[in-house]
Amino acid sequence: MIAAAAENNALGANNDLLWHLPDDFKRFKQITSGHKIIMGRKTFESFPKPLPNRTHIIITRDKNYTVSHSTCIVIHSLEEAIDLVRNEAVSFIIGGGEIYKQGAKFANKIELTRVHASFENADTFFPEIDESEWQLENEQYHPKDERHKYDFTYLTYVKKQRK
């Protein structure tokens, strides 16, 4: 899973992000390029156009929903999406809130950008990370600057091995 979430786990409001962090966008592009990305319909529709160099797997309950773009596959459950990426070395769940919640049990890694602010106007949230299941493997702090209104930290979690 890859996400950017505030201190209160806010992801967005009205199908839009609550912040603009160019370095985080650059990191997202670098990490996900060349891979399959799994998302809900609303997340897909928040993009102006499909993201380049990625296969989009779009989950919707709407059996009549179609996207006429060669890099997009429309399916109707997260389980179907997981089946489509089962043989991939790497793939990413990219949102939104409900897809992250359902996807946590399938994920083995979380690339989380923790935005150091809270947003009370949010309507979509990232699930709590259960530290009994996830081990923080790496963190890298990025202070706010002229291009970034908020401080943020890149956090990499890996799922702990069951004993």
UniProtKB/TrEMBL annotation:
Gene3D superfamilies in the cross-refs: Dihydrofolate Reductase, subunit A (3.40.430.10)
Keywords carried by this UniProt record: NADP, One-carbon metabolism, Oxidoreductase
Listed GO CC annotations: cytosol
InterPro entries per record: DHFR, DHFR-like_dom_sf, DHFR_dom
Residues in DHFR domain copies: 1-159
The keyword NADP belongs to this UniProt entry's keyword annotation: yes
Biological process (GO), any one: one-carbon metabolic process
Molecular-function annotations in GO: dihydrofolate reductase activity; NADP binding
Pathway the protein acts in: Cofactor biosynthesis; tetrahydrofolate biosynthesis; 5,6,7,8-tetrahydrofolate from 7,8-dihydrofolate: step 1/1
Catalytic activity: (6S)-5,6,7,8-tetrahydrofolate + NADP(+) = 7,8-dihydrofolate + NADPH + H(+)
Domain of life, per lineage: Bacteria
E.C. designation(s): 1.5.1.3
PROSITE patterns per record: DHFR_2
Biological role stated in the UniProt entry: Key enzyme in folate metabolism. Catalyzes an essential reaction for de novo glycine and purine synthesis, and for DNA precursor synthesis.
Annotated PANTHER family: DIHYDROFOLATE REDUCTASE
Family label: Belongs to the dihydrofolate reductase family.
The name this protein goes by in its record: Dihydrofolate reductase
